[in-house]
From TrEMBL:
One record GO biological process: DNA-templated DNA replication
Superkingdom classification of source: Bacteria
Pfam families, per database record: DNA_pol3_delta (PF06144)
Protein name (record): DNA polymerase III, delta subunit superfamily
Record's keyword terms, sorted: DNA replication, DNA-directed DNA polymerase, Nucleotidyltransferase, Transferase
InterPro entries membership: DNA_pol3_delta_N (IPR010372), DNA_polIII_delta (IPR005790), P-loop_NTPase (IPR027417)
Amino acid sequence: MLEIEKLEQEIKEKLPKRMYFCYAQDTFLLFEVTRLVRKNFDPVVIETYESPEELDITSFASPSLFSSKTVLLIYNFEKIKKTEKRIEWLKKITSQVHSSISLILLCNASYKEISDEIAYLKKDKNSLLYNLDLKKEDLPTWIAYKASQNGITLKQDAIYYLIDITGGQPGLISSEIEKISLLTDKSHIGLFDIKDILTELGEFTAFDLIDAIKKKDKERAYRLIDKLQNTEPDMILGALNWYYTNRVNADPSVYNLLYRTNLSLRQARSCSLEMLLYELLKD
């Protein structure tokens, strides 16, 4: 079971523990926690803090007068810079906050950066910890989970296509799943269903670009790159990577080209995709 699924179970059980410490290097995965909390709790019982320093711990030493449960969403635990100060803050929280209050502490950091804090919380019987970062092998399971939340089932070819065209980025994958679920009445979606959905929209997609490259249609390919300027570059590179990976006898140098283009785009070089096209379409 994924860590986010374990946390969702706790949320559906109305957070019986006092402390839920969630950490990830991908901020999108942390905001997924917020979405689940807001989906399962009345907004009246949720209080949000942008950093631990905003929280007056003494004000939560007694139960709320207005509800039997209060949920505190606290972002940016990593803003407390020193490990000693973080552990000191955690000690105050775990010893002073009333049992009717549950804290969800969100930390944008890796395990290595907060290993001492994690070790401290593991000793506390009222705390649970969740490493929300996804390993490569967990991505297909996570995509299936996200699809089910949107009321659809994705077939294996669709799942691996989404991984390829997004570079495995959870935020982009989630956005694509949401779009697919809104644009089809089907409950089981395969790769060709996704292509059909995009075709019905009348949108130019990375598939059109791939078709132009296959046919060595330089004029159309450059027109399409211009039309796709509002598309995430990662989606275009992901689609190209998917195409060449599944192509028999693909030139291995293509992958180096895709890699160098990706690096260039990270450095905000706007002409990088055009240069990539030039290389791919050379005679």
